[in-house]
């Protein structure tokens, strides 16, 4: 009945609230907080499709992930790369995915080619680049 629907809606809103919270935490001063938020986002994006919710907030999220990649070290960068891949998967091959890919490609390449970055960060950015390229690059090259 309608109770089940209301329950589902409630769960969905709750899940979205948690996602919003994780997204806010990506901008936290504490690297620990940012890492925890990245891990939570990774789990959330890997477990269910939330593309509607993400579509509305993709620019905010992309911005935050960009900051994590630029300012973060090691594990944080690696997680940010993974979350980016998942975000790209959620966006799919439409204009949104392509936009995401185009905006982050230079940054992914710069982490990937940075000999000072940790191997896990470089590997994660390489994977994100490959995944996003496969899904979203309009230009086949």
TrEMBL record:
Family matches, as InterPro entries: ARM-like, ARM-type_fold, IFRD, Interferon-rel_develop_reg_N
Ranges for domain Interferon-related developmental regulator N-terminal: 6-140
Sorted UniProt keywords: Coiled coil
Pfam families in the cross-refs: IFRD
Domain of life, source organism: Eukaryota
Signal peptide positions (record): none
Coiled-coil ranges from the UniProt annotation: 5-32
Family, per entry: Belongs to the IFRD family.
Name used for this protein in its record: IFRD2 regulator
Origin species: Bucorvus abyssinicus (Northern ground-hornbill)
